[in-house]
Amino acid sequence: MKAIVLNRYGAPEVLQWQSVPDPVPGPEDLLVEIYAAGVNRADLLQRRGLYPPPEPRPTHEIPGLECAGVVRAVGERVLGFQPGDRVMALLSGGGYAEWVTVPYRLALPIPDRLSFVEAAAIPEVFLTAYDALFERAELQPGDTVLVHAGASGVGSAALQIARASGITGWATAGSERKLEAARAFGAEKVVNYRQEKFLERVQEWSGGRGVDAVLDFVGQDYLEDNLKALAPEGILVIIGTLSGPTAAINLGWLLSRRLTVRGTALRSRPPEQKMTLVQRFGQRMGPWLADGRLKPVIDQVFSRDEVGSAHEKMEANRNIGKLIIQVRT
Ligand SMILES: NC(=O)c1ccc[n+]([C@@H]2O[C@H](COP(=O)([O-])OP(=O)(O)OC[C@H]3O[C@@H](n4cnc5c(N)ncnc54)[C@H](OP(=O)(O)O)[C@@H]3O)[C@@H](O)[C@H]2O)c1
C-alpha cells in the first residue's frame, strides 16, 4: 500500500507518500480500507519529531490518529463487524495511509447520514471532548463550562455535546469569525481573548461565582486565570498546552476553593481504557450523531497530495473545525 512515512522530521515537505508493506490484521483487528483521515495538532508535533509514537515503535512511522473507511477483513475474534461495514476508528497512528488495522473495540459504525469525510472528523475530537466533559470534568445538566479555542476541532465538539446535554457552554476564540462559529456550535456567551480578559467576562456572566469546569488547550499562559475562573469545587481539564507546558500556581487557591486540575491525553492511554471510552461514547453519543444533534465540523477537505497544505493551515490557526484528507474517492 501507499502511506505517508516519517523517514525524517521537519517542515510539511517531509510528508510524502511511499510504498510500504500492507498491514496484516491480528485476531481482534479490523482491516480497514481508508477513505478519509483526520489531521490533528499532534500530527504537526509528530512531523517535527516532538511526539514519538507509543511503544512498541512501528517499523514505519505513519502519522494519523483517526480514519473512516470500509472493513475489508476481520480477525477471528472480532465481534459485531463484518467485511463491507463502514467504520470510523481511533488510531494510535497509521491514518495517513490507504489501509490500516485497528482493534475492533476502537472502531464504531458510521451513521448512515454521514459521509466518510464527515466520519473521519469525529473520533479524535469528539472522544476527547466527551471524555473531558463527562469523565474528567464530571459535568451534569445545569452546569456551566468554559471552553477555550471554541472554534477548534475539540472546542466545536465540546460545545455541541454540552448544548445537547443541557450544560451551558461559554467560549473563547481569537477572531470575530471564530466567535460566530463558536456561537453556532452552542456557546451561549463568547469572548475574544485578544481584545478582552476572559476572566473578567466569566466573572461578570456568572455573577462572581465562576464556572463548574474549564476545558483548556492553552496551558501556561492561562493557568492562573483558568483557576480564578472556576467556581468552588470546579475542575480544570488540561487537554493541550499550546502556549507552553510550564506554569506556577498559587496552591492556596486550590485549597481554599477545593479546586481540581486534571490532565488528559488519548493516545498514550492503555488500550483497554481507550476501548472502554470508545464503547461508552458510542452508546451515549452515537444516537446523537445519527439523528444530527451532533455534527462533525469540516473546515476543508484536502486531496491526498495536499497533506502538507493541511498541516500549514492548522499551524497558522486558520481552521474552524476539522481538516480532512480524502485518501480515496
Ligand atoms: N489530550 C488529548 O487527548 C487531545 C486530543 C485532541 C486534541 N488535543 C489538543 O487540543 C488542542 C486543540 O486541538 P484541535 O485539533 O481542536 O486544534 P485546532 O482545531 O487546530 O484549533 C486550535 C486553536 O487553538 C487556538 N490557539 C492556538 N494557539 C493558541 C494560544 N497560544 N493561545 C490561545 N489560543 C490558541 C487557535 O484558535 P484561535 O484563533 O481562536 O486562537 C487555534 O485555531 C490542541 O492543543 C491539541 O493538541 C488533545
Estimate the global geometry from the Cα principal axes: globular
Count of DSSP strands? 15
Q: Judging by the overall fold, what is the CATH architecture of the largest domain? A: Alpha-Beta Complex
- The name of the CATH superfamily of the largest domain reads Medium-chain alcohol dehydrogenases, catalytic domain
Helix content: 25-40%
Spatial separation of the terminal alpha carbons: 16 Å
At the first level of CATH, what is the class of the largest domain?
Alpha Beta
Give the topology string: H per helix, E per strand. Answer: EEEHEEEEHHEHEHEHEHEHEHEHE
* Uncertain segments: none
Strand proportion, as a percent range, falls in 25-35%
Structural class: alpha/beta
Task: Kindly identify the CATH topology of the largest domain.
Answer: Quinone Oxidoreductase, Chain A, domain 1
- Report the oligomer: single chain
Provide a concise account of the structure shown:
The protein has about 325 residues and is α/β, with parallel strands linked by helices. It has 10 helices and 15 strands. Strands 3, 4, 5, 6, 7, 14 and 15 form a 7-stranded mixed sheet that branches. The protein has a 6-stranded parallel sheet with strand order 10-9-8-11-12-13, sandwiched between helices. A two-stranded antiparallel sheet has the order 1-2.
Can you give a write-up of this model?
It is a single chain. The chain has 329 residues and is of the alpha/beta class. It folds into two domains: 2-122 and 268-326, Quinone Oxidoreductase, Chain A, domain 1 (Alpha-Beta Complex); 125-263, Rossmann fold, CATH 3.40.50.720. The chain has helices spanning 41-47, 116-120, 123-136, 153-164, 176-185, 198-205, 223-228, 251-257, 271-290, 307-315, and strands spanning 2-4, 17-19, 29-38, 66-74, 86-90, 99-103, 107-109, 144-147, 168-173, 187-192, 211-216, 230-238, 260-263, 298-303, 322-326. Strands 3, 4, 5, 6, 7, 14 and 15 form a seven-stranded mixed β-sheet that branches. Strands 10-9-8-11-12-13 form a six-stranded parallel β-sheet, sandwiched between helices. Strands 1-2 form a two-stranded antiparallel sheet. The protein is globular and about 60 Å long. The model has no long low-confidence stretch (mean pLDDT 97). Bound molecules: NADP nicotinamide-adenine-dinucleotide phosphate. NADP nicotinamide-adenine-dinucleotide phosphate is lined by residues 40-42, 124-125, 128, 149, 151-155, 173-175, 178, 217-218, 239-240, 242-243, 264-266, 314, 317, 319.
